[in-house]
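Support request from a user on the community tier.

User writes: "When I paste my structure tokens into the form, the page sometimes reloads and wipes my input. The last time it worked, I copied everything first. Here is what I submitted, just in case something in the input itself triggers the reload:"
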């Protein structure tokens, strides 16, 4: 019965609020109460008290407000989803009597060995929708496992991919249990509840519950080389600031295991849309950026990514749904800065919005609280799976052959390049509600832009925009394909407005005498215009040049400003839209 209530809470909390329409649906809950203060608190949360018996209050509350009960720290379960029909719960899960036995045990922490047994059990019970992969081996020769959950698990499909990681830090044992519990509930319900079935059928979910098995056995933060694995990723890796970041980025086999499922050119080249890395020591969700970048973004300042609007929208919604008492939201750098962590690498290099979830104030809570923390976080992890299909999605293919092309995806007004999945060509550009111009470009192809694409809210399925790119005449290689090159020159070169429809201001840090040439290139490296630099003038340490592009006979799309300063070349991408 206990599990049944968990499932009801799962389905009600995540999905109940999505389908209520205009009419407010009230649910009936049993809530544990200890004293008059509890009763007063319940009323202030919007509960109507029905009866009180044996320390339990039966209350009515708007279905959309159930999450407030858990957030406030009450123990409760749902009696009836819809108070108008007390037999309604049968419809929520008509097959509950026939459900497969619920096998995993969460009364004690999973060791590397018992975790392996649990993953094998899930894989054995649900062979049609799971694959178990050894994605790496730790310093002390322990296997690192990933469970992939999706229908047709051997076929690469056009689906958002989501990644859940536990135990970067070996002393944060609860971070193994929460993603494992999520996986077990997802698998235990998908045959019987249409909403979870949709996630198995329409998503590809990767769960790595224990990436640091040596740290688990040693009960230490670090791996067996005394490296803090969450400082060992390549983006902004910083040995000046981080004492245990490893000899070089990805020096450790455990971080290599994560790269092995997350980057092109490795065994499982996924492009994850959303990710959660689980930790403990606080009770919050932490958004990128985590690194500090003084003077503009020193430590303890809010350091947003270019996608901060949707990053924060998802984090705030995650926190609303999460029932951990006192759960909060913070920007990583504003809380405290870290360099070379998984979140920043995922967003910085891999087009993945990745969050740090801090599960519990106590690093490793008593074993009888494992299930409590698993339940606190369950619905918000389901929400991440739902939200992975918001924004704009589609495929980028060759117009002649129909084959997928590795492509860059640019959204006007958000200065950050995303990549598609090279295996199937699909991209999943997560965005907040609004209208967007989106451009796909690829080396050797003519870029394409689609304008005014309407994106609905986080719960609406993503808008589909497919690109069939035509080969460009020039076969020269694109000059810029990565964010790293772009960010390395941004400090010395500004272009605005960007996107531009004609007039463009170029600002260059440096002396006017050193400016040799300015050229505009297309994405394949072909010069479409050389700019007359005699119109440039100095202002302080800066050179300003105004350029009129309105007479250029070029297609809308991504172009590159190429500046030669004393034979040192800088680049900047612009989007040209007529
Ligand atoms: Zn941690």
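"...and here is what came back when it finally went through:"
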């Amino acid at each position: 019965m206990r599990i049944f209530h968990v499932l009801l809470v799962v389905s009600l909390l995540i999905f109940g609020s999505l389908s209520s329409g205009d009419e407010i649906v009230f649910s009936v809950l049993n809530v544990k109460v200890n004293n008059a203060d509890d009763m007063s608190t319940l009323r202030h949360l919007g509960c109507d008290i029905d009866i009180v018996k044996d320390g339990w209050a039966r209350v009515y509350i708007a279905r959309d407000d159930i999450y407030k009960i858990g957030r406030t720290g009450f123990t409760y379960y749902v009696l009836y989803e819809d108070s108008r029909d007390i037999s309604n719960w049968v419809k929520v899960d008509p097959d509950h009597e026939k459900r497969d036995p619920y096998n995993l045990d969460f009364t004690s922490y999973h060791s590397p060995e018992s975790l392996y047994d649990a993953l094998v059990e899930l894989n054995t019970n649900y062979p049609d929708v799971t694959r178990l992969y050894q994605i790496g081996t730790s310093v002390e020769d322990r296997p690192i496992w990933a469970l992939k959950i999706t229908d047709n698990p051997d076929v690469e499909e056009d689906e958002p991919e989501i990644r859940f990681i536990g135990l970067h830090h070996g002393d944060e044992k609860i971070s193994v249990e929460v993603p494992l519990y999520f996986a077990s509930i997802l698998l235990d319900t998908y045959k019987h509840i249409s909403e979870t079935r949709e996630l198995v059928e329409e998503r590809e979910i990767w769960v790595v519950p224990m990436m640091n098995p040596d740290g688990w056995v040693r009960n230490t933060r670090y791996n067996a080389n005394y490296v803090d694995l969450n400082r060992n990723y390549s983006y902004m890796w910083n040995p000046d600031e981080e004492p245990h970041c490893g000899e070089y980025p990805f020096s450790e086999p455990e971080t290599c295991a994560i790269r092995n499922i997350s980057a092109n050119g490795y065994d499982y080249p996924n492009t994850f849309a959303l990710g959660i890395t689980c930790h403990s020591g606080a009770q919050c969700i932490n958004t990128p950026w985590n690194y500090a970048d003084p003077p503009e973004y020193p430590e303890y300042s809010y350091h947003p990514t270019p996608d901060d609007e949707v990053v924060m929208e998802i984090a705030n919604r995650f926190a609303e749904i999460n029932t951990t008492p006192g759960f909060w939201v913070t920007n990583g750098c504003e809380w405290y800065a870290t360099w070379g962590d998984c979140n920043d690498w995922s967003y910085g290099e891999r087009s993945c919005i990745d969050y740090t979830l801090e599960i519990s104030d106590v690093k490793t809570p008593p074993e009888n609280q494992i299930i409590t923390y698993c339940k606190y976080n369950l619905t918000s992890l389901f929400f991440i799976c739902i939200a992975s299909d918001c924004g704009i999605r589609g495929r980028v293919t060759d117009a002649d052959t129909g084959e997928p092309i590795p492509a860059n995806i640019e959204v006007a007004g958000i200065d950050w390049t995303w990549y598609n999945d090279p295996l199937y060509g699909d991209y999943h550009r997560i965005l907040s509600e609004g209208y967007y111009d989106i451009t796909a470009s690829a080396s050797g192809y003519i870029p394409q832009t689609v304008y005014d694409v309407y994106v609905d809210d986080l719960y609406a399925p993503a808008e589909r925009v497919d690109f069939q790119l035509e080969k460009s005449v020039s076969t020269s290689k694109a000059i810029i394909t990565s964010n790293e090159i772009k960010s390395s020159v941004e400090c010395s070169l500004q272009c605005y407005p960007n996107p531009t429809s004609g007039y463009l201001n170029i600002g260059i840090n440096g002396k006017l005498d050193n400016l040799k040439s300015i050229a505009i290139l297309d994405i394949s490296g072909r010069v479409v215009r050389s700019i007359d630099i005699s119109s440039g003038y100095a202002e302080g340490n800066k050179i300003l040049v105004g350029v009129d592009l309105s007479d250029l006979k070029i297609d809308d799309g991504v172009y590159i400003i190429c500046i030669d300063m004393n034979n040192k070349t800088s680049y900047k991408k612009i989007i040209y839209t007529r």
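Agent notes: The reload is a front-end session timeout and is unrelated to the input. Residues 168-169, 172, 279 surround zinc ion (CB under 6 Å). The two ends are 62 Å apart (CA to CA). Escalated to web team.
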